[in-house]
Structure formats: structure tokens, C-alpha cells
Amino acid sequence: MLNSPSPGADRREVHILDYWRILWRGRWTIASIFVVATTLVALGTFTQKPVYRGKASVEIQPGSRKVAPVAEVSDMGAGAYGWLAEERYFNTQYEIIRSRDVASRVFDRLDLYNHPMFRKTSDPVDSFRRMVRIDPIKDTGIVEISLEGTNPEEVATWTNTLAEAYVDRNLEMGVQAASKAVQSLLQEIQPLRERLADTQKDTFDFAEKANLYVPENQQKITNEKLSTFQEELTKTEVRKGTLESLLRQVELVRKSGGSYESIPEIGSDKSIQELTHERVGLEREYERLLITFKDKHVKVLEKKSEIDKINQRIDSEAQRVISNFRTEFDLITDRQRELVREIDVTRSESLRVNQKSTGYEQLRGEATEAKRIYDLISTRMKEIDISASLMTNNLRILDRSPVPKIAVKPRTVLNMAVGMLLSLLLGVAAVFFLDYLDNTIRTSEDVEQFLGLNLLAIVPTESEATKNAVREAYQTLRTSLLFSRKARTANAALVTSAGPQEGKSQTTVSLARTLASAGERVVIIDCDLRRPTIHQRLNVPRDHGVTNYILSPTDDLAAYLKPTTTPNMFAITCGPIPPNPAEVFGHERFTALLQELKRRFDWVLIDSPPVVSLADASILASMADLVMFVIKHNGNDKELIRRSVVTLRKVSPHLVGAVLNNVDLERSHYRDYYYLGYYYYGEAGTARGTRRRRTAESKAAAAPARDESRGRFAG
After folding, report:
1. Is the peptide bond before 410 cis (omega within 30 degrees of 0)?
2. Ramachandran region of residue 544, left (φ > 0), alpha (ψ -120 to 50) or beta?
3. What does the H/E/C string look like for 354-403?
4. Helix (H) / strand (E) containing 569
5. Global pTM?
6. What pLDDT, on the 0 to 100 scale, is given for residue 689?
7. Most CB atoms within 10 A, among 15, 113, 424, 611?
8. How far is residue 496's CA from residue 461's CA, in Å, rounded to a whole number?
9. Model confidence over 673-688: pLDDT tens digits?
10. What single string gives the DSSP state of each residue in 97-154?
């Protein structure tokens, strides 16, 4: 008998060939997307107008050129940028090249405001600025400035003018900075000289009148003392608040008549915990005594007395703990008052010290600062005269832009290469996405792992080339059916499916012919009383069938058996279609008919309606000894088939497996029927067919061992 695999059991690891098979099935989709996308890229590339790029090089020195060691007043170079000066300086220069200031200078020199390219823009300067491209050359102070446009002569002119405007601006800014420094120093030097003399005189006069010394250590000690008192006061106030909250809880418990043990600070006392533990033990003994004795018994009363004494001791300990908390609260309150007084005294002392030294420190600081500034400005004034006369530009144009001859856009080869690559990736992604959306049964793993059914046989799509493969598939189904039944008397097999048009009737007829060809007597009962097709497939009349037998008063079964063209094979057609087919199968005469056919024939094959939305298949499944489920390859939705299988399992324990029907061997690559297609497709006698037959023989020989290892057959 076949072992039923559980869903998810014997899960096969995904192999790289599985991905290749998905791509092979979707090769035409990939090719279509590739052709369309590549064509669009080619059209866009070849219809684009040529774009030229002008490129000029500028050398940037991080420091200004000096011919004498004098102070820098021009603001040129990286000296004013501090930490990581060079990196920040170069980044600043790159932004200056792209700035509106430099762009405006170019517009003014070339009169670009009326240029057709910028005339219609709302902000022509900003549009030009956005066209500027900066490319620093690594590990050098050289930067390449480039602009792109459709006119090569204009692009070269714009690029060179931009470089000139940038270099000229830098020198102009340096000259302006030096001039401003000179003017500023001249304005500040005289007032500083007068201020220095006044502050020095005021400092000495103040110290003489106040008899002041400098109490730095005294001020430090006072501040540390004040900080210590404040820290202790904070801790005292926190503890006081905690005790106050605790005593408030005690008062609430006292007024409400509750237990002080409910307060965590009291209940956590070690003595109270020990007494509480002892009381719990006494209460347990008291409860045990009440089970044996009445509440007035001497032992019960003694135990209750012990509990009362324990409660009194617990109350006494709780009062002791509460008393300790009250005492601590009073002490904390007194300490708080003392600390407040100490802090007030210390603050007064600190204020007096500050008042004595503040005036003197202020005057002394002003005098020192005035002296330092005066000395600095005096030194700076001496350097400015030399620096202004020796100023040079730290920027210079290294290479001017020639008129470009070759367009930089469109980059035909790159665009086509990237377009072809992206088109291919898009096609592959589309194929995998479509495969992900395909929610049908396609492989034996879907049957065994998702549905939890044995795979009885794989039936290829019928054609002239696959007729031998189809015949061999039904031989396999016959073998699986023989191994599935527990006893020879279990010979009533139901063939059903989840939905219509899945090939269950054809499977029933083909299986019956295979069984009859082996010498067994077979009868087919057409129980699809809604859309019967057995009479059409066997070319026998439909009337005088199952419904006629149910309504007939006689039991002459021979009158309803119709012979077929296949020896040992008979059929009972459906007869007239009744208004309620489910009632026909519940009739006692149908049960008797089924039992009589089982007695007379080796096999009784029942063709039933689909399981979805119909009760007929469930009723018939409860009567059958074996139930086979036909699944069309790439047919119905997985979830619909799974619900149908669950429905059958609820009414019958005899669901032996599934038949994967209508498999296209030309397009399928899965391992359970891989060798089957190669074997029968290679029977044409060609060299290719010979190689396929050799492959088929080796794989066919390995197939039973594989099936046995996967637990398909037992016994």
C-alpha cells in the first residue's frame, strides 16, 4: 500500500537547473522584452543631438605665493581654514567655481543674457551655473572645469571665460581684503592707545583705594563648601519625601483598617517576614484541622489562638518599624533646616568675596586685553605694507579649452551595451515574476509536498508522438492502484478532480482499458449525473443507466451493463439526468448496485463529478474503497485543489494519491517525468533518439530505487 506523504515532507533543495528551466520556458518572453527595450534604447540614442564638452585646467595653490615672510592679509590660500585646511579650501574653491558670482561675471563679459539658450529661462545665471562640471585630478592641485553644449565653438569660449573669471575674481578678492585690513587697522590703532593708558591707570587706583588682595584660593574653598552642602541637602530632601510618602501610606492603612504588611517597606522587614512565614504555616495547619474537626474543637481553637498571637506579634513589629520611620523623618527634617542655614551663610560669604575681587579683576583684565590688542595691531601694521606690495595670485590657468571635435554624447556603444544588459535583466525578472504568479500544480513536488498526496502516475498530453508514453503512464497507474488496495475485495475505485475539464473521465476510461487488457473484468459507472461523458467516450447509448436502475422495481443488472469494444470491459451509463443527483447516490438501491458490481467484477471504476461546490463526489468517496484525484498540469489553482483534497479526506480515509494529467513533455523538465519524455520522443530511430533511449534506460532503471527511497511504495 502507498504511504501518504505529509505536506512539506521530503522537501527537495532548489537546484540551479530549476532556475534554468524557468528561464527556458520563458525564453520567448525574454526575447520579446529584449527586442522591444533594445529597440527603444537604439531609437533614443541615434536620434539624440550631439553634445560637445569644453575643458580647461586651473592650478590651485593651497597657500598664496610669498616672496618675504610677512603676515597674510589677502585671504588667499588655505591659511584661514584651520584644521583640515587644504581639504576645506579646495572644497570651497569648487563651490566658488559653480557660484552665481562667477557665472554672473561670465554673463557680463560675453553678454549671454540674450543668448537663445538662456533667453527663455526664468533664471539664466542659475541655468548656466548648473551646467558647470568640476573634476579635481587626484593627488594634485589641478582642477578641470568643463561645460557641455551643442555648439563646439561656444562651449570652448564659455569654458575659457569661466576659468578667467574665476582666476581674476580670486586676485580681486585678495586686493579688496588687504585694503579693508589697512583701513580697519588705521581706525583702531589710535583709540586703543588711549584706552590702554586709561585702563592701566584705573587698575592701580582701584587697588590702592580698596586695599584689595587676590583671594583665588578663598573663593575656591567657599564654592566647594557650598557645593557639598547643596548636594547633601538634595539627598536629604529626597529621603524626606520618601519617608513622608511612606508615613502617608501608613496613615491610610490605619484609617482603612488594612494590614501594614501591604506596604513594601514594612512587609520587607526581616522579622515581619519570618513571622508572616510562620503564620502561613499555622494557617495551613488550621485549614487541615478544619477538615478533620469542627471549628469548636480544642485543637482547632488552640491553633486559632496561636495564629492570633502571631498576628499580634506582627502588629507589634509593624508598629516598631513605623516608629523607626517616624524617628528618622524627624531627624531628617532637623538636618534639612540646618543645611538650609549653612547654605545661606556660605552664599553670603561667597558673595562678599566676589564683591571684593570683581572690580579689580575686571579692571586688570581690561588692561591686559588692551595691551595685547595694541601690540598685535602694531605688529600687523608693520606687515601690511610689505604684504600688499608683494601680493600674487595663487590661481592660474594651466590649459585653455580647445574647440572640441568629438561629441561626448550620445555614447552609442555604452548606451547600447547598458540598454541590452538592462533589457535582458528586465526580461529575466519578468519571467521569474510571471513564474511566481503561476499558482498551479506543475511538478511532482507540488503534489507530494503541497497537497500531501502520493503521485500515482504522470500522464503526458496525448498526441501521435506521445501515444506510447501515454500507454506506459496508464500501466504505471494500474501498478500503483494494485499496490494501493489493502485487499482484493477493495476493488471500487473513485476517480474525481477539483474542477471540470481536468481529464478525470478520460483517465477513468483509459485506466479501465489498461486493466481490461491485463485480463481483469472491469466495469465503469458514470456517476457524473450533471455532465456525463462516459457514453460518448465509449460510443454507447446513454439511456437505460444508473438512474433507470434506481427507479426500476427489478434487480436485473444484466440489462443495464453495456459491453464495449474492449474485451472484459463494461459500462453503466448515467441514464436520464435527475433534478437532484445527490439523492440518487444516497438511495439504498445504489448501495446495493455498488456491492453487486464489486462481487461480479474485478474492478469497479466510478467516474464522479468535480469536488468543488458539489456534494456528489463526497458521497461517492465515502462509498469507494479507493479514491484517485486527477490534477491537470498547469490547470487549476493550488489552493482550490488543496481545499478539494481536504474535503475528500474528511469523508474518506482511502485517498490513495493523485494523477498528474495532460503534461506537455516538450516543455516540461521535471525529474519525475524527465526520462519518460526522452525515452518515447527518441523512438523515431535517429541518432538523437538512440542517445535519448540510452539515457532513458539508465534513468528508468534508477527510478524504482528513487521511488522506494522516497517512501512511495511499501510492502
Report:
1. yes
2. left
3. HHHHHHHHHHHHHHHHHHHHHHHHHHHHHHHHHHHHCCCCCEEEEECCCC
4. strand 569-572
5. 0.50
6. 44
7. 611
8. 19
9. 444 444 444 444 443 4
10. HTSHHHHHHHHHHHTGGG-HHHHTSS-HHHHHHHH-EEEEPTTSSEEEEEEEES-HHH
